[in-house]
Amino acid sequence: MAQVTEFACGGYVLAVTWNHAVADGFGVAQFLQAVGELARGFPSPSVVPVRYDGSLPEIPQLANTLASRLAGCEHIDFAYTDVTIPWSFINRVKAELFHASGHLSCSTFEVVAAAIWQCRTRAITKRAADNAGSPAPLVFTVNVRNRVGAKDGYYGNCIMSQLITAASGAVGDGNIVEVAKLVKRGKEVITSTLEGRVVLNEELVDALCGYGLLVLMSWGGIGMEDMDLGGGRPARVIANMETTVLPSSMICPPCSTKDGSRDGVNVIAFCVREEHADGFHEELARLH
Predict the structure, then answer these.
(1) 90-109 per-position pLDDT tens digit
(2) Is 130 annotated in the active site?
Protein backbone atom coordinates (compact mmCIF):
# COMPACT_ATOMS: atom_id res chain seq x y z
CA MET A 1 0.00 0.00 0.00
CA ALA A 2 1.29 3.46 -0.86
CA GLN A 3 0.13 6.98 -0.04
CA VAL A 4 1.39 10.30 -1.39
CA THR A 5 1.02 13.50 0.64
CA GLU A 6 1.72 16.74 -1.24
CA PHE A 7 2.69 19.99 0.48
CA ALA A 8 2.03 23.57 -0.58
CA CYS A 9 5.78 24.14 -1.01
CA GLY A 10 5.89 21.53 -3.77
CA GLY A 11 7.48 18.78 -1.74
CA TYR A 12 5.81 15.48 -1.02
CA VAL A 13 6.05 12.36 1.12
CA LEU A 14 5.64 8.87 -0.29
CA ALA A 15 4.64 6.42 2.45
CA VAL A 16 4.81 2.70 1.72
CA THR A 17 3.80 -0.25 3.86
CA TRP A 18 4.07 -3.93 3.02
CA ASN A 19 3.94 -7.41 4.46
CA HIS A 20 7.10 -9.52 4.61
CA ALA A 21 5.11 -12.42 3.20
CA VAL A 22 5.38 -10.55 -0.12
CA ALA A 23 8.83 -8.96 -0.07
CA ASP A 24 11.68 -7.87 2.15
CA GLY A 25 13.21 -4.40 2.24
CA PHE A 26 15.51 -5.10 -0.72
CA GLY A 27 12.53 -6.29 -2.75
CA VAL A 28 10.45 -3.22 -1.92
CA ALA A 29 13.38 -0.97 -2.85
CA GLN A 30 13.56 -2.78 -6.20
CA PHE A 31 9.82 -2.22 -6.70
CA LEU A 32 10.08 1.50 -5.87
CA GLN A 33 13.00 1.90 -8.26
CA ALA A 34 10.89 0.24 -10.99
CA VAL A 35 7.99 2.61 -10.29
CA GLY A 36 10.40 5.52 -10.58
CA GLU A 37 11.77 4.27 -13.89
CA LEU A 38 8.28 3.90 -15.33
CA ALA A 39 7.37 7.38 -14.06
CA ARG A 40 10.42 8.75 -15.87
CA GLY A 41 9.37 7.15 -19.15
CA PHE A 42 11.28 3.88 -19.19
CA PRO A 43 9.48 1.29 -21.39
CA SER A 44 10.09 -1.38 -18.73
CA PRO A 45 12.03 -1.71 -15.44
CA SER A 46 15.78 -2.15 -15.80
CA VAL A 47 15.62 -5.10 -13.38
CA VAL A 48 13.09 -7.78 -14.30
CA PRO A 49 11.20 -8.83 -11.13
CA VAL A 50 11.52 -12.48 -10.11
CA ARG A 51 8.86 -13.74 -7.73
CA TYR A 52 9.98 -17.37 -7.34
CA ASP A 53 13.49 -18.80 -7.14
CA GLY A 54 13.39 -22.55 -6.62
CA SER A 55 17.17 -22.77 -6.38
CA LEU A 56 17.29 -20.99 -3.01
CA PRO A 57 18.29 -23.11 0.00
CA GLU A 58 16.30 -22.99 3.20
CA ILE A 59 17.42 -19.96 5.17
CA PRO A 60 17.50 -20.55 8.96
CA GLN A 61 15.25 -18.09 10.75
CA LEU A 62 15.68 -17.15 14.38
CA ALA A 63 12.05 -16.03 14.46
CA ASN A 64 10.88 -19.58 13.77
CA THR A 65 12.71 -20.82 16.86
CA LEU A 66 11.00 -18.14 18.96
CA ALA A 67 7.60 -18.32 17.27
CA SER A 68 5.76 -20.08 20.09
CA ARG A 69 7.07 -17.61 22.68
CA LEU A 70 6.35 -14.50 20.59
CA ALA A 71 2.89 -15.57 19.40
CA GLY A 72 1.09 -13.96 22.32
CA CYS A 73 3.15 -10.76 22.43
CA GLU A 74 1.30 -7.46 22.05
CA HIS A 75 2.33 -4.04 20.76
CA ILE A 76 4.51 -1.99 23.14
CA ASP A 77 4.67 1.81 22.90
CA PHE A 78 8.42 2.26 23.01
CA ALA A 79 9.71 5.84 23.06
CA TYR A 80 10.52 7.28 19.63
CA THR A 81 14.08 8.38 18.93
CA ASP A 82 15.40 10.12 15.81
CA VAL A 83 19.16 10.60 16.15
CA THR A 84 22.20 11.19 13.99
CA ILE A 85 25.40 9.38 14.96
CA PRO A 86 28.10 11.96 14.06
CA TRP A 87 30.86 11.19 11.60
CA SER A 88 33.39 12.52 14.11
CA PHE A 89 32.47 9.68 16.48
CA ILE A 90 32.33 7.03 13.73
CA ASN A 91 35.73 8.01 12.32
CA ARG A 92 37.29 8.17 15.79
CA VAL A 93 36.22 4.62 16.65
CA LYS A 94 37.48 3.34 13.29
CA ALA A 95 40.84 5.03 13.87
CA GLU A 96 41.13 3.71 17.44
CA LEU A 97 40.45 0.15 16.33
CA PHE A 98 43.04 0.33 13.57
CA HIS A 99 45.61 1.94 15.87
CA ALA A 100 45.04 -0.62 18.64
CA SER A 101 45.23 -3.64 16.34
CA GLY A 102 47.63 -2.38 13.72
CA HIS A 103 45.57 -3.91 10.92
CA LEU A 104 41.86 -4.26 11.77
CA SER A 105 39.28 -2.03 10.15
CA CYS A 106 35.58 -1.77 10.86
CA SER A 107 32.59 -0.62 8.86
CA THR A 108 30.25 2.26 9.55
CA PHE A 109 27.51 -0.28 10.31
CA GLU A 110 29.67 -1.94 12.97
CA VAL A 111 30.39 1.36 14.72
CA VAL A 112 26.79 2.61 14.58
CA ALA A 113 25.45 -0.76 15.79
CA ALA A 114 27.93 -0.73 18.66
CA ALA A 115 26.95 2.82 19.62
CA ILE A 116 23.20 2.14 19.73
CA TRP A 117 23.75 -1.18 21.53
CA GLN A 118 25.98 0.37 24.18
CA CYS A 119 23.91 3.54 24.73
CA ARG A 120 20.71 1.55 25.12
CA THR A 121 22.30 -1.00 27.45
CA ARG A 122 23.65 1.78 29.66
CA ALA A 123 20.27 3.52 29.73
CA ILE A 124 18.22 0.48 30.77
CA THR A 125 20.75 -0.87 33.30
CA LYS A 126 21.96 2.40 34.80
CA ARG A 127 20.73 1.58 38.29
CA ALA A 128 21.23 -2.17 38.06
CA ALA A 129 24.93 -2.88 38.54
CA ASP A 130 24.02 -6.28 39.94
CA ASN A 131 22.66 -7.22 36.48
CA ALA A 132 26.04 -6.82 34.76
CA GLY A 133 26.07 -10.55 33.97
CA SER A 134 22.58 -10.66 32.48
CA PRO A 135 22.33 -11.29 28.72
CA ALA A 136 22.14 -8.28 26.39
CA PRO A 137 21.69 -9.96 23.00
CA LEU A 138 21.87 -8.04 19.73
CA VAL A 139 20.05 -9.36 16.65
CA PHE A 140 20.61 -7.73 13.26
CA THR A 141 19.08 -8.57 9.91
CA VAL A 142 21.22 -9.67 6.98
CA ASN A 143 20.45 -9.61 3.26
CA VAL A 144 21.88 -12.96 2.10
CA ARG A 145 21.10 -12.78 -1.62
CA ASN A 146 24.75 -12.86 -2.64
CA ARG A 147 25.54 -15.62 -0.15
CA VAL A 148 22.82 -18.01 -1.36
CA GLY A 149 22.98 -17.21 -5.09
CA ALA A 150 19.55 -15.61 -5.49
CA LYS A 151 18.56 -14.71 -9.03
CA ASP A 152 18.87 -11.08 -10.10
CA GLY A 153 15.52 -9.40 -9.54
CA TYR A 154 14.31 -11.78 -6.83
CA TYR A 155 12.19 -9.68 -4.50
CA GLY A 156 10.89 -12.25 -2.02
CA ASN A 157 12.26 -12.69 1.47
CA CYS A 158 15.97 -13.38 1.42
CA ILE A 159 17.02 -12.21 4.86
CA MET A 160 18.10 -13.85 8.07
CA SER A 161 18.77 -12.71 11.62
CA GLN A 162 22.27 -12.83 13.05
CA LEU A 163 22.56 -13.16 16.81
CA ILE A 164 25.36 -11.77 18.97
CA THR A 165 25.39 -12.70 22.65
CA ALA A 166 27.13 -10.69 25.34
CA ALA A 167 26.64 -9.78 28.98
CA SER A 168 25.12 -6.38 29.68
CA GLY A 169 28.25 -5.41 31.65
CA ALA A 170 30.53 -6.13 28.68
CA VAL A 171 28.34 -4.03 26.39
CA GLY A 172 27.47 -1.18 28.74
CA ASP A 173 30.80 -0.84 30.54
CA GLY A 174 33.14 -1.98 27.80
CA ASN A 175 35.27 0.19 25.55
CA ILE A 176 33.30 1.16 22.44
CA VAL A 177 36.06 -0.33 20.26
CA GLU A 178 35.58 -3.71 21.94
CA VAL A 179 31.83 -3.51 21.41
CA ALA A 180 32.39 -2.73 17.72
CA LYS A 181 34.62 -5.81 17.55
CA LEU A 182 31.76 -7.90 18.94
CA VAL A 183 29.57 -6.72 16.04
CA LYS A 184 32.40 -7.36 13.60
CA ARG A 185 32.84 -10.93 14.84
CA GLY A 186 29.09 -11.46 14.54
CA LYS A 187 29.24 -10.49 10.88
CA GLU A 188 32.18 -12.83 10.28
CA VAL A 189 30.16 -15.93 11.24
CA ILE A 190 27.09 -15.21 9.10
CA THR A 191 28.07 -17.97 6.67
CA SER A 192 28.34 -20.47 9.54
CA THR A 193 24.87 -19.46 10.73
CA LEU A 194 23.51 -20.03 7.22
CA GLU A 195 24.98 -23.51 7.10
CA GLY A 196 23.80 -24.56 10.56
CA ARG A 197 20.63 -24.44 12.56
CA VAL A 198 19.62 -22.21 15.42
CA VAL A 199 19.99 -23.84 18.86
CA LEU A 200 19.22 -21.77 21.96
CA ASN A 201 19.20 -22.50 25.67
CA GLU A 202 16.29 -21.45 27.86
CA GLU A 203 18.10 -18.45 29.37
CA LEU A 204 18.88 -17.05 25.94
CA VAL A 205 15.32 -17.65 24.72
CA ASP A 206 14.06 -15.66 27.70
CA ALA A 207 16.48 -12.85 26.86
CA LEU A 208 15.49 -12.83 23.18
CA CYS A 209 11.84 -12.44 24.13
CA GLY A 210 12.47 -9.75 26.74
CA TYR A 211 13.45 -6.12 27.20
CA GLY A 212 17.18 -6.86 27.24
CA LEU A 213 17.15 -7.64 23.51
CA LEU A 214 17.97 -5.11 20.79
CA VAL A 215 16.89 -5.79 17.21
CA LEU A 216 18.80 -3.75 14.63
CA MET A 217 17.91 -3.37 10.96
CA SER A 218 19.64 -1.40 8.25
CA TRP A 219 18.29 0.02 5.00
CA GLY A 220 21.73 1.15 3.93
CA GLY A 221 22.91 -0.21 0.60
CA ILE A 222 19.65 -1.90 -0.41
CA GLY A 223 18.47 0.82 -2.80
CA MET A 224 15.82 2.68 -0.81
CA GLU A 225 17.67 5.93 -1.39
CA ASP A 226 17.98 5.35 -5.16
CA MET A 227 14.31 5.75 -6.06
CA ASP A 228 13.67 8.66 -8.46
CA LEU A 229 10.14 9.55 -9.54
CA GLY A 230 11.40 12.31 -11.80
CA GLY A 231 12.41 14.96 -9.28
CA GLY A 232 15.63 13.39 -8.08
CA ARG A 233 16.52 11.10 -5.21
CA PRO A 234 14.62 11.43 -1.92
CA ALA A 235 15.74 14.00 0.62
CA ARG A 236 15.22 11.47 3.37
CA VAL A 237 14.22 7.83 3.86
CA ILE A 238 13.05 6.77 7.32
CA ALA A 239 11.21 3.87 8.92
CA ASN A 240 8.02 4.01 10.93
CA MET A 241 7.20 0.74 12.63
CA GLU A 242 3.44 0.38 12.99
CA THR A 243 3.76 -2.43 15.51
CA THR A 244 6.66 -2.82 17.94
CA VAL A 245 6.78 -6.04 19.90
CA LEU A 246 10.54 -6.13 20.53
CA PRO A 247 12.98 -3.23 21.14
CA SER A 248 14.11 -2.22 17.65
CA SER A 249 16.24 0.30 15.77
CA MET A 250 16.64 1.12 12.09
CA ILE A 251 19.77 2.52 10.44
CA CYS A 252 18.42 4.69 7.64
CA PRO A 253 19.97 5.50 4.25
CA PRO A 254 21.98 8.72 3.88
CA CYS A 255 19.78 11.77 3.43
CA SER A 256 20.59 14.64 1.11
CA THR A 257 20.95 18.26 2.21
CA LYS A 258 20.93 21.52 0.29
CA ASP A 259 24.72 21.86 0.43
CA GLY A 260 25.38 18.15 -0.09
CA SER A 261 26.82 17.66 3.39
CA ARG A 262 25.84 15.00 5.88
CA ASP A 263 26.52 15.25 9.58
CA GLY A 264 26.39 11.53 10.25
CA VAL A 265 24.27 8.39 10.08
CA ASN A 266 20.56 8.66 10.87
CA VAL A 267 18.97 6.09 13.19
CA ILE A 268 15.29 5.72 14.04
CA ALA A 269 14.77 3.79 17.27
CA PHE A 270 11.84 2.26 19.11
CA CYS A 271 13.94 0.50 21.71
CA VAL A 272 13.44 1.96 25.18
CA ARG A 273 10.46 2.50 27.44
CA GLU A 274 9.51 6.07 28.32
CA GLU A 275 11.20 5.83 31.71
CA HIS A 276 14.53 5.10 29.99
CA ALA A 277 14.18 7.57 27.09
CA ASP A 278 15.98 10.50 28.75
CA GLY A 279 18.86 8.28 29.79
CA PHE A 280 19.12 6.84 26.28
CA HIS A 281 19.15 10.30 24.73
CA GLU A 282 21.77 11.50 27.23
CA GLU A 283 24.04 8.61 26.29
CA LEU A 284 23.56 9.32 22.58
CA ALA A 285 24.37 12.99 23.14
CA ARG A 286 27.79 12.00 24.52
CA LEU A 287 28.86 10.48 21.20
CA HIS A 288 31.44 12.74 19.60
Answers:
(1) 999 999 999 988 888 999 99
(2) no
